TrEMBL record:
Gene3D superfamilies: Hypothetical protein af1432 (1.10.3210.10). Pfam families: HD_5. This is HDIG domain-containing protein. PROSITE patterns: HD (PS51831), HD_GYP (PS51832). Residues 133-256 form the HD domain. InterPro entries: HD/PDEase_dom, HD_domain, HD_GYP_dom, HDIG_dom. It comes from the Bacteria. It comes from Terribacillus halophilus. NCBIfam families: HDIG.
Length: 363
């Protein structure tokens, strides 16, 4: 299978993985032949990437750190929680039953992170845009817990960070939907409304007796930056809580690698470049490095060009060093197509990935 952009795929290709919606239902089954109508519909629903079949890559299997079922279960929990908040008229707070369900979901996700150091591979736009806030909350929790896990923080801390990440955007329930989903440039007044979600989330959560106050500070501080350039208070350095620093990194990465109404999703290596551009200035360098060691920088199925001119598909991840995957070569440097063979970049340190592509017409 190959990872390709919905903007480049042509009719006649077959899906290698089913496409799901936010309720866990399959929109398009595996092996369905893509028609022009189906491709148009995928683009309308703002899917950026899909997996298509390739006879040379039939043995590739995807290994996600969490199953679709687990992610969807967590999404449904956060969806119900946020709906409970939205219908509360600001006077009712999350029930103990609902916070217990959030805790249970977090513990399930942590159990999959803890047994071994496993690189995260999450393509968040498997889910449709309409419920971005809910899928974003789950993804940020996964990424934040991966950072905390890599930093060898106690499991109780990892779980608390996950809980804070799940609720970090709760304040957006109090921001007008027409502002949140605006496709054009925000006015200064609209951007101020967006920024208020941090304060509104903090004020909501800090009044809840069944949630630790530090969770409220995750909502309050996740847009603060260590150089003082963030909001809402412009605090810096050690004044920002450890949890909020971690969640802030996870939040930015998922935001840029997810599909939005105003732009397409970036690939993981592009998202990491943004984090490293701000490392030491906006983001804690140690935390960014920990995240780099935790995420699949070159997702399985991605087309890559190597420094020696060869082109191939990422077929597996190296747990020892996730910047150097195993690549199946489909094209030599001179343009000829050999019998496909594998190159483990961990064993060939003189060869690097120099370019990536999601074009369905490569090779």
């Amino acid at each position: 299978m190959r990872l390709v952009s919905t903007k480049s795929v042509k009719p006649g290709k077959r899906l290698a993985q089913p496409v799901y919606n936010d309720k866990g239902s399959i929109l398009i089954q595996r092996d369905v032949e893509l028609t022009a109508g189906i491709i148009d519909r995928l683009q309308e629903l703002r899917y950026t990437y899909i997996y298509i079949r390739d006879d040379r890559l039939q043995d590739i299997e995807l290994e996600f750190s969490t199953s679709n079922e687990e992610r969807l279960k967590a999404m449904q929990v956060i969806h119900k929680s946020f709906q409970e908040i939205k219908q509360s008229d600001n006077g009712r707070y999350l029930t103990e039953k609902m916070t217990d369900k959030i805790t249970s979901s977090i513990q399930e996700m942590v159990s999959n992170l803890r047994p071994k150091r496993q690189t995260l591979m999450i393509l968040s736009d498997m889910l449709i845009y309409d419920d971005y806030i809910f899928s974003h909350s789950v993804n940020v929790a996964l990424y934040a817990m991966a950072i905390a896990n890599e930093m060898r923080l106690p499991i109780s801390v990892v779980e608390e960070i996950g809980f804070g990440a799940i609720l970090h955007d709760v304040g957006k329930m109090f921001v007008p939907q027409e502002v949140l989903q605006k496709t054009g440039k925000l006015t200064d007044a609209e951007f101020e409304q967006i920024k208020e979600h941090t304060t509104k989330g903090f004020n909501y959560l800090r009044k809840m007796n069944n949630i630790p106050l530090v969770i409220a500070h995750c909502a309050y501080q996740h847009h603060e930056r260590i150089n003082g350039s963030g909001y809402p208070r412009g605090i810096s350095g050690s004044d920002i809580h450890l949890y909020a620093k971690i969640i802030g990194i996870a939040d930015v990465f998922d935001a840029v690698t997810s599909n939005r109404v105003y732009r397409d999703a970036m690939l993981p290596h592009e998202g990491l470049e943004i984090l490293f551009a701000g490392a030491g200035d906006q983001f804690d360098m140690e935390m960014v490095e920990a995240f780099k060691r935790s995420v699949a920088i070159y997702p399985t199925g991605l087309t890559v060009r190597l420094s020696d001119g060869r082109m191939g598909i990422v077929i597996r991840q190296n747990e020892d060093i996730n910047t150097r995957p195993i690549v199946r070569i489909l094209q030599e440097a001179d343009g000829t197509e050999p019998e496909p063979y594998e190159v483990n970049l961990y064993e060939h340190l003189n060869i690097t990935v120099v370019a990536c592509s999601t074009s369905a017409e490569e090779n």
